Model the fold of this input.
Amino acid sequence: MVKVELSSRRPLLKSHLRQANDRLLLNLIRQSSDLSRADIMRLTGFPASSVTYIVKRIMSAGLVYETRSERPSRVGRQPVMLRLKPEALIAAGVEILRSGARIILADLHGAILAQRAVPWEASHMIFLVRVREALRALTSNIGGRLLGVGVSLPGTINRNTGYVFAAENLGWFEIDAGGILAEGATAKFYFGNDAHLGALAERWFCEPGGKPLENFVYVVLREGLGTGVVLEGSLLLGASGEASEFGHTTLYPDGRRCLCGSTGCWEEYGSQRALERLYAERQPAQGGQSALNAEQIIQLARHGDVPALAVLKETAGDLGLGFANLNAAFNPEAIVVGDYLAAAWDLMKDWVWDAVRLRAPQRQLRLLRILPSRHGTDSTILGTVALVLSSFFAPSTLVRGPNEAEARSAVLPSP
Done:
């Protein structure tokens, strides 16, 4: 059965229904590597005549093509399969980090086609204007194929406008980042929190034909610590889009002062920044040598460096304590971890699990998995692409983007 949600604010026009049917079929084709017209009839319940009309429309639009199946056929000719033309439409993605910005173009399957980097600037205005110009340059030759631009921002944001209320790790407060990035542009812009978008990428870009996770938590571990929670296939956003900020839940009431103003936040014990600070405290820089980053600490640990192993073990214990809290709150089937923990998972997993087992019921642990992200450092940037694609394909229960009135629209001008 196909679930259709109707809005009471405007009538359902015939064109809306036609568009919904087109996008439903496109999404089915996107999710499958081998799908025939007969398969579509079986999956949707649509009659053959309707499938024929819809397929004709989306083929005329240049979005799909037909080809003989590579599957062996027991009788007769090989069946004809429908395949998506991945470069028929392009999504742009922008990821804002403390180290700078990353801008990509990706096709309908999420394959990265081109990318640029913009170095960090202390002035948010200078930095965001440079990001905007780099985005315009990268998209200048796409024309009508540009579906939209997804933007990842850390901290607390308005996901419809990209307004940053507070991004403590960037030092940004009350910044209209979305307005600066979209100034003079007419492409649709979609905004998301980095942890939410990491969760979206994990579910949207699963293995072809694979079953996506329905109940899981995605954990970002960078300058800060963020979480994206998916329950029964839907992203948990809350009344104002600020739900699941577990990085700022209290781990130790009398602990370290957090950038958010509170004390003992999980972020101060499990983030990449916390790991690097802990190592610097244990091994002060000598001879003018600068403090090591997480990647360097992990490499030292792999070579048996005792202080590096010690700080990884201590951080793993605090991460496990937080994971036990996530398990108690959501009973997820999986906790998916990114960034430095994914890179060092083989070193840290036993210590993490030891801490979780001390605090979680065995009956729940039989079902819980803790997994490194399949997308590694690309999780959030692919989430920006998924945010755009989810607005184009059949409506997803995972995320509901801004409506036409809330989205910034048009085509990016040439630089």
